[in-house]
Amino acid sequence: MSTSFEPGAPVEEGFIPLCVPEIRGNAWRYVKECLDTGWVSSVGAYVTRLENDIAARLGGGLAVAFTSGTAALHVALMLAGVGAGDEVLLPSLTFIAPAFAVRYLGAWPVFCDVDPLYWQMDPDQVRGFLQEGCRRQGGQVINKATGRRVKALLPVDLLGHPADMDALMELAQEFGLTVVEDATESLGALYKGRPVGGLGHIGCLSFNGNKTITSGGGGMLVTGDARLAAKARYLSTQAKDDPLEYVHHQVGFNYRLSNIQAALGCAQLELLDEYVAAKRRIHQAYQEGLAGVPGLRLSALAPWAESACWLSTLEVDPAAYGMDSRALLKALHQRRIQTRPLWQPLHQSPALAGGHSLGCPVSERLHGQGLSLPSSVGLAPADQERVVAAIRQLAGQAPDQG
Ligand SMILES: Cc1ncc(COP(=O)(O)O)c(C=O)c1O
């Protein structure tokens, strides 16, 4: 199926994309300053400024810039002490990057389900597993089924909505685990009034092009622990112990964000509140526009959450709506509207074979029934009305053939 997107070409007239960046404000000025001064690479004032601005937004702590959210997760897990043969609990329903970060270290994911309402990592299942499925041994938590040491929790604030972080932090405290919060999809969301990304022991953000704000690619590691922040900085800059003689005592990474990317990131961060407000309006408009259509439900917003509404996502009950999510995707594509299914649940991913699943029926159902709708910050109201009208009109219709 063609995407109506040719690399480098403008979005085709009349095509409504899923989620594209919104470049505005000071972006040109800041990036030009990097070009004019020659400060384009991994050291520069914008890198420091982006780190400080993110730390301030997340309510203090320290932030370290990375080339991507995945790189930040990789180092965050190292800082959490995760090593080869350890296990890390994460939701089965997520983009695969956090599980890949676990595998980079030779560690194994334990796949948890998400709750059926808000689609976030289910703390009750995590509690049940830690209490019944594990034994304590010499201060460590051992998975009875695999014999591996459980080392960390990796909740993902999915699709813009916070995970139930207090419940997970309490469990981590009780079982001596570290929590790495993957807030890559949810910058700007609040959990009980507190910003996501700063709720775990370590938090990770992404500035990938499909996120609410972008640096053209980039990430951030955030922590309240100065020792961990210093270690993150060290590991992300090739673990250089003597910058003159180039002495290294351990393996490091070239994971440092460039100044030119950070400049774009700074300009975007200035617009974050406006962009999150736009995403929330989009979610609300879908909520109202699709109300009453049988078999359709948007993911719910928890009373303790102010979601950043990164991607508004529908659950399509095929029996009640009249076609399944994939048929709806195709029918919308024919109307030049781009949508996307939710990710293959990670416990079913061939790339992650060998991980341990706690049973994830909700993730499986949402994979089959979930469909993310156009949610760009710049989505015009008239375009959104076109999406809503198409979905309403298709209700009850047999799928188009072909
Ligand atoms: C849940 C989740 N974790 C991690 C990442 C990785 O971020 P990046 O693309 O910046 O590596 C993404 C998105 O790309 C994501 O959606």
Summarize the structure in words.
The protein starts with 26 loop residues before the first helix and ends in an 8-residue tail after the last helix. The chain is globular. The strands form 3 sheets. Strands 1, 2, 3, 4, 5, 6, 7, 10, 11 and 16 form a 10-stranded mixed β-sheet that branches. Strands 12-14-17-15 form a 4-stranded antiparallel β-sheet. It has a 3-stranded antiparallel β-sheet with strand order 9-8-13, with no helix packed on it. Helices cover 35% and strands 16% of the residues. It is an alpha/beta fold and 402 residues long. It folds into 2 domains: 27-269, 3-Layer(aba) Sandwich (Aspartate Aminotransferase, domain 2); 272-394, Alpha-Beta Complex (Aspartate Aminotransferase, domain 1), CATH 3.90.1150. The chain is built from 13 helices and 17 strands. The mean pLDDT is 96. Bound molecules: pyridoxal-5'-phosphate.
